[in-house]
Amino acid sequence: MTASQALRAATAAAHDAVDAAYARFDLTDRAGYAAFLTAHARILPPVEAALAACPALPGFRPRTPALAADLAALGRAMPVPMTVSIPHDPAAAWGMFYVVEGSRLGGVMLARQVAPGLPHAYLAAGHGAGDWRTIRAAIDAADTGADWTARAVAAAERCFGWYGAAAVTGA
């Protein structure tokens, strides 16, 4: 099993829990959508700041500016970000990168649910053709063995947990 396959398999339950936590937000309603974005804005900035400090990540494109712009268009300020303990470990960065970049896939689908006239630059910031495949291949190439994969999985699970916590406290 490749590292990217291990990440997918090992984090499936955490991913499902985050999806369930965010399902409570009504994206067709201005207030519900603003609450959804606010929840994301509590966790995305600290995670992206950690990822930006890891030069090995291919094609990392922060979405915090798009998220801030969408919130501003809704008359909302960026919230105080969550305080999280992010390990300074390349394997952990790859695990968090997997979560953040994987969320682009779901974001594009969620963007279709956003009511017309509401800003959706954050959710619409998807991957280009083949980008997700390239990211998975880069994760697999960075893998140095079982310990590396275990650290990446642990970080991905933590990252999913932070997103879940932000959904509860970010509204």
Description:
With 171 residues, the chain is mainly alpha-helical. It has one domain (3-169): Heme Oxygenase, Chain A. It contains 8 helices and no strands. The longest helix has 24 residues, at 146-169.
**How would you sum up the major sheet?**
none
Question: What's the CATH class, please?
Answer: Mainly Alpha
Total helical elements: 8
Secondary-structure class = mainly alpha
Distance from N terminus to C terminus (CA atoms, Å) equals 38 Å
Low-confidence stretches: none
Mean pLDDT: 93
H/E element order: HHHHHHHH
What is the fourth-level CATH superfamily?
A: Heme oxygenase-like
Number of domains: 1
Can I get a quick summary?
By secondary structure, the chain is an all-alpha fold. It is 67% helix and 0% strand.
Give the key terms.
about 170 residues, mainly alpha, Heme Oxygenase, Chain A, 8 helices
